[in-house]
Each structure stands twice: as structure tokens, then as C-alpha cells.
Amino acid sequence: MATPVFATTGPDAQRALADTVVDLLGRARVPGLLGAHFHLAQDGGRVLNYAEWTDASARREFLTGGTADRLRAALGALPGVTAVPAAPVEHADPATADGPARPPVSGYQPYKTLVNVPSPRTR
Q1: Using H for helix, E for strand and C for coil, what is the string for 24-45?
Q2: Residue 94 DSSP code
Q3: Distance of alpha carbon 86 from its chain centroid, rounded?
Q4: Taking the mean position of all CA atoms in its chain, how far away is CA 117?
Q5: pTM to 2 decimal places
Q6: pLDDT tens per residue, the chain (123 residues)?
Q7: What is the per-residue pLDDT across 48-67, written as a single tens digit (0 to 9) for each?
Q8: Pair 7, 14: CB distance under 8 Å
Q9: Element (H, E) at 65
Q10: What is the phi-psi region of residue 47: left when phi exceeds 0, alpha when psi lies from -120 to 50, beta otherwise?
């Protein structure tokens, strides 16, 4: 699992981000990626991408490959979209062999803050 978070300037930027990721990953056919689920803050200010992977090594392989570089460049070029760290580094546990450091979070409560976005195309 990976949960990249982005600050956005409104619903148009949120939709552009989700559409860009879905389009690029759909064309790349990323091995090991089970799904990317987008949660948009109702106020237009954030997007959380809940990405599911077969295992940590598939995610690491993706992060060091060309598709990840193209994705970072495409998202960096979107107006109104800024990547945001999910938790300050000083509050995270040390990285483990299974993946990146995990922030100490007591629970995840999306009630009234996030909405699911349907895929822009059928699979």
C-alpha cells in the first residue's frame, strides 16, 4: 500500500490529477499494481491516492523505473497540484525491509472529508 497526498487548488485540479494518473498508469500497464483509488476532499484542497501493490518489491521497482519518472513529471506540470508529505519525517518510524517508514496514525476516518471518484473509463 502507498498513500501519496497532494494539495490542490480546487475540483478542476483534483480531476486533472486523477485523470492524469489513471491515463498514464493505464497505458503503462504497471506490473504489481493492483489498484489506485482516489479520494478527493470535498473542499477541493486535497487528493489522497490509495495505491495497492502485490508486494513491497513491486512498488520499489515502480518507483525506480521510467513510468514513475514520467508520472512525477506529468504531475509536476499540472497547475494547482503540489505533492505533500503525508507525515513529517521526524514523526515517522524508521524504514523497514517491507517498505517506507510508516507515520504513527491512530486511525483513518474519512467521514465527511473525502469522496470516491469513479474511474473515467470502464476496464
Answers
A1: HHHHHCCCCEEEEEEEEECCCC
A2: P
A3: 10
A4: 13
A5: 0.67
A6: 678 889 999 999 999 999 999 999 889 989 999 988 898 999 999 998 888 889 989 999 998 989 999 999 999 999 999 988 755 444 444 444 444 444 444 444 444 444 444 555 544
A7: 888 888 998 999 999 898 99
A8: no
A9: none
A10: beta
Cell numbers for 14, please give them.
483534483
Give the list of residues 6+ apart from residue 105 with CB closer than 8 angstroms, or none: 87
Phi-psi region of 31 (alpha: psi -120 to 50; beta: other; left: phi over 0): beta
Phi and psi (nearest 5°) for 57? -70, -35
- Burial class of 71 by CB neighbour count within 10 A (0 to 12, 13 to 18, 19+): buried
| Spatial distance between the Cα atoms of 13 and 44, rounded to a whole number of angstroms | 8
Fill in the amino acid letter for 50. Answer: Y
